[in-house]
Amino acid sequence: MKFFIDTADLAEIEEAASWGVLAGVTTNPSLYARIGGKLADFPEHIKRICALVNGSVSAEVVGQTADEMVREAQELASIAANIVIKIPVGIEGLAATSALTKAGIPVNMTLVFSVPQAILAARAGARYISPFIGRFDDIGEDGISQVADIVNAIGNYDWRGAGIGMEEPEIIAASIRSVNHVAQAALIGADIATVPFAVLRSCLSHPLTDRGLEAFIKDWEKVLQA
Ligand code: E4P
Prior knowledge:
Elements: E1 2-6, H1 10-18, E2 22-26, H2 29-34, H3 42-52, E3 56-60, H4 66-77, E4 83-88, H5 91-102, E5 107-112, H6 115-123, E6 128-131, H7 134-138, H8 143-155, E7 170-173, H9 179-187, E8 192-195, H10 197-202, H11 207-225
Helix pairs in contact: 1-3, 4-5, 6-8
Bound molecules: erythose-4-phosphate.
């Protein structure tokens, strides 16, 4: 499983990139609003993110029609070579995904909550499909088993020719809220987990790791004094 970071915060992206394991970034309008982003600064901000990461950067369109989405996507795609266009699943989104895929612009289909939505996204040529875990849990459903079903359903078919020169779309486990979500995403075979910075950092800590390290350092002091 690859790790993406789910944030628009440059400092968080820079820090996570320095760990050497970051394969991409996902942003959305809410994440950009959360850092106080302004419309006029958006292209430059995305450009700065693209320069920080050696991997794909998903930037989301806000248009409501396929034509608007395609127009926005073309502008975003011109910012950097590693841009992926995030498009919400739906009729207009599918049409936009199909057009962009044919034009060689990769799409991450977002806000996916069911197997049929995921299959349609793949059929339209989406490079990435993002089922949301936490938001599904929030309404009393089981987000992880939904992602597991999507991973299995996509794995049932040969998608060669559907997208842009790849064999099958990658499933991004999104809306991750905890270390357990990360673990479960790996166990059910998600290709990628897009993880908020705080959760990513928590993935590295364990009380037994801390306790073990403390003991090693204390014992080494004894060796130094022997
Ligand atoms: C996915 O790409 C979304 O940006 C994100 O994972 C949504 O997460 P949330 O439900 O915590 O807002």
